[in-house]
Design brief:
Order of helices and strands: HEHEEEHEHHHHEEH
Shape: globular
Organism: Candidatus Halobonum tyrrellensis G22
CATH class: Alpha Beta
Radius of gyration: 19 Å
Helix content: 40-55%
Strand order of the largest sheet: 2-1-5-6-7
Cofactor: Zn(2+)
Structural class: alpha/beta
Distance between the termini: 50 Å
InterPro entries: Carbonic_anhydrase, Carbonic_anhydrase_sf
CATH architecture: 3-Layer(aba) Sandwich
Number of domains: 1
GO molecular function: carbonate dehydratase activity; zinc ion binding
EC number: 4.2.1.1
């Protein structure tokens, strides 16, 4: 058995000792306050980034590109991972969590800008599952690529598209008839690249229920004014 997994098992014993009594109130059911949709990136620690150590508090979803969209026989739909807590556990808030340096956004950007000179070959070399995920992401980023300010290097362009992607995912949720109309939808970016002000690991609010203006958001949400920041108000 590979040592990294053995290490995980050993760490799990510590977790079990700490959390044993914390499951008393949630053994039979769950009623999480919020569902988060994060990128499945090893640098984005979903529960840890919120300081969450309470079972039943946060319903966590993850995929490459923090997408809320899945493709069905009937067309595109809100991912069942996101809809489940909204439909069955009384959850009334969704948080879409993008992050700086997102590999999925970078891959989509390269596709759209031909920075990968062998795009077709690169796609052919990817497993079908990864290509499928990028096929869902790329069309949503294409208008954003066209609007990017001139003169950005690749890293800066990607980090602005991270925000743009969060905006598109928030918009999809808000426009869907499957999502209850009173659901609160917030878009944030988790920064570990010093792209925003503040410390690495801070979450920056970029979108609340479709509103993207930093000035407006700070007026409407003074309790989190210092956490509202955007790289790009497109």
């Amino acid at each position: 058995m590979r040592r990294p997994f053995v290490d995980l098992l050993e760490a799990n014993l510590e977790h079990a000792a700490e959390f044993d009594a914390r499951f008393d109130g949630v053994q039979e059911s769950q009623h999480p306050d919020v569902v988060t949709v994060c990128c499945s990136d090893s640098r984005v620690l979903q529960d840890h980034l919120w300081g969450n150590d309470e079972p039943g508090h946060v319903f966590t979803c993850a995929n490459i590109g923090n997408r809320v969209v899945q493709r069905t026989d009937a067309g595109e739909a809100v991912s069942g991972d996101v809809l489940y807590p909204l439909a069955h556990t009384g959850t009334e808030a969704v948080v879409v969590v993008g992050h700086t340096g997102c590999g999925a956004v970078t891959a989509a950007y390269d596709r759209l800008t031909d920075e990968d000179e062998n795009e077709d070959a690169a796609d052919a070399s990817e497993p079908a599952g990864i290509t499928h995920c990028l096929d869902l992401l790329t069309p949503r980023l294409e208008p954003g690529v066209d609007r990017l300010p001139a003169g950005l290097d690749r890293a800066d362009a990607v980090n602005r598209l991270v925000e743009y992607n969060v905006d598109r995912q928030v918009a999809f949720l808000r426009e869907s008839d499957e999502v209850p109309g009173d659901t609160g939808v917030v878009g944030v970016v988790y920064d570990f690249q010093d792209a925003y002000s503040g410390r690495r690991g801070e979450v920056h609010v970029v979108n609340v229920d479709g509103e993207r203006s930093v000035e407006t958001l700070r007026v409407e949400h003074p309790d989190v004014e210092s956490r509202i920041e955007r790289l790009w108000e497109h």
